[in-house]
Write a structure and sequence with these properties.
The complex is a heterodimer. Chain A is mainly alpha-helical. Chain A has helices at 8-15, 18-27, 33-60, 63-83, 93-118, 126-157, 159-167, 172-197, 205-212, 217-250. Chain B is an alpha/beta fold. Chain B has one domain: P-loop containing nucleotide triphosphate hydrolases (Rossmann fold). Classes of the chains: A mainly alpha, B alpha/beta.
Chain lengths: 266, 205
């Protein structure tokens, strides 16, 4: 496989496009200049670091190093889910729920995709495991934070009608049904939209990456189809566990609504 | 019979009182005294230390939903979760009984299928009361049940509350209307404004 390597100068040239973002922010008074700079610098540092880390781990081909990076990625995804909530549950529960769930989903779906379907040798080959885990985790993380955020917003808005239902003797599952439906739908929507438009409107990043690296387009498309199915399954699981966790965190065994467990809006 | 022992609802001092079957206890106090909090605590909608018994059974002896089917809280501002009132009523309710209940409140059965948005505030409040009474709970916790009603509708609601006590239910009524309390209540519980939680235990009646 052959491809043209990029020099730092090439990247610097592309970076000048950020001037456009800054200009829009300045002209319309969005005050995003600082955020743009921080985001760009974060991206640079994070990608440079992960490049070095991956280079190191690919050289080792050790299950322990791979596992360590898996844990770090799941932990970071959990922190990100927690940080994205407008109103989150007080204490450690949101972080625990999201990190635990994402680790489980990431490992289970990646094990299916890499261990069972792709079947590299060795089965834990990091250059297969880590990119696929990253895509699975990234999409599960989005689904979960959407579900949790939608749920806490909707449950606060619908509080009086949920409690009216509970006061009539409804179980928490019945009273939360409407809110849960809205949240699950929101969580699963991005992958459905993305499956419906991929290949027409957008060429997915992984596929284009493989093609740029010299892979046969048909082979690249097959990988993309695989990853789409893996992501669909992962976001379904992430939405389900996120919704279930939200119901359990915001109600109690006496089937009461416990909005007192939500921290103040940020 | 409803019996409340050392119940601490919100910042209220611990409360102990009894409402016999067939009696109505009026809860009075200025706005913000915690009248609604007290009703919600009795209905087990908020966690509150202390004990609440209905006919000898404590609330924690049964699941929350079962408790709230016996001890019915009816909020001052009714809320709904569908477009029409119909789905809030149990499907098994005998049509004849539901019709009688509605007509005793000056409502028509067709209103159940009308959009909630076109019903008046007073109609919605009376529909919420009908919804709270249709499955015959033993204890009624009524939070300002006539607050948004005209005199005629309020009289119908009072008549129904009187009928509920005569049928042997225990009623706890929050009201700002002294005359209404005089007409309906057998006993009163006055909640002081801003009472510190450590205050002397309030005993009533």
């Amino acid at each position: 496989m052959t491809y043209i390597s990029l020099t730092p100068l090439d990247l610097a040239l592309a970076a000048t496009l950020l001037v456009l973002n800054a200009a829009i922010s300045w002209v319309f008074g969005l005050r995003l200049e600082k955020s743009i700079a921080v985001a760009a610098v974060r991206m640079l540092i994070q990608l440079a670091l992960i490049g070095l880390v991956l280079k190191f781990i690919f050289a080792q081909t050790s299950p322990l190093w791979t596992l360590l990076l898996v844990l770090v990625m799941a932990g970071a995804a959990g922190v990100e889910v927690t940080a994205r909530q407008h109103r989150r549950v007080k204490g450690w529960q949101t972080l625990g729920l999201s990190t635990g769930t994402l680790l489980f989903i990431g490992v289970a779906i990646t094990a299916l995709g890499v261990g069972v379907i792709i079947g590299p040798d060795p089965w834990y080959a990091p250059r297969y495991v880590l990119p696929i885990l990253g895509m699975v985790l990234g999409n599960s993380m989005t689904a979960m934070s959407l579900v949790l955020d939608t749920f806490s917003e909707a449950v606060s808005r619908e509080r009086t009608s949920i409690e009216a239902w509970l006061a009539l003797g409804a179980h928490r599952g019945e009273a939360m049904r409407g809110v849960l439906q809205v949240s699950l739908r929101t969580g699963m929507m991005p992958i459905l939209n993305s499956m419906a438009t991929t290949g027409i409107v957008a060429l997915p990043g992984m596929m284009t990456g493989q093609i740029l690296a010299g892979a046969d387009p048909i082979a690249a498309v097959k990988y993309q189809i695989l990853i789409m199915f893996l992501i669909a399954g992962a976001t379904a699981l992430a939405s389900f566990f996120g919704g279930l966790g939200a119901v359990l965190l915001l109600t109690d065994k006496r089937h009461r609504l416990r909005l007192d467990r939500l921290a103040a809006r940020r | 019979m409803l019996r409340v022992e050392h119940l601490r609802a919100g910042a209220l001092p611990p409360l102990t009182f009894e409402v016999a079957s067939g009696e109505c206890l009026a809860v009075e106090g200025p706005s913000g005294a915690g009248k609604t909090l007290l009703l919600r605590a009795i209905a087990d909608l908020d966690p509150a230390p202390g004990q609440v018994f209905v006919n000898g059974a404590e609330r924690n002896e049964m699941p929350g939903p079962q408790w709230r089917r016996n001890v019915r809280y009816c909020a001052a501002e009714p809320a709904w979760w569908s477009d029409t009132p119909r789905s809030a009523f149990p499907t098994g309710a005998a049509a004849g009984r539901l019709d009688r209940l509605l007509s005793s409140l000056g409502l028509e059965p067709q209103m159940l299928d009308r959009a909630l948005a076109v019903l008046s505030t007073g109609e919605r409040q009376r529909l919420a009361l009908a919804r709270a009474l249709i499955d015959e709970p033993q204890v009624l916790l009524l939070d300002e049940p006539t607050a948004s009603l005209d005199a005629q509708a309020a009289a119908l609601v009072e008549e129904l509350i009187r009928y509920q006590t005569l049928s042997g239910r225990s009623v706890v009524l929050v009201s700002h209307d002294r005359n209404q309390i005089d007409r309906l209540a057998h006993a009163r519980l006055l909640l002081p404004k801003g009472a510190p939680a450590a205050a002397q235990e309030v005993q009533a009646p």
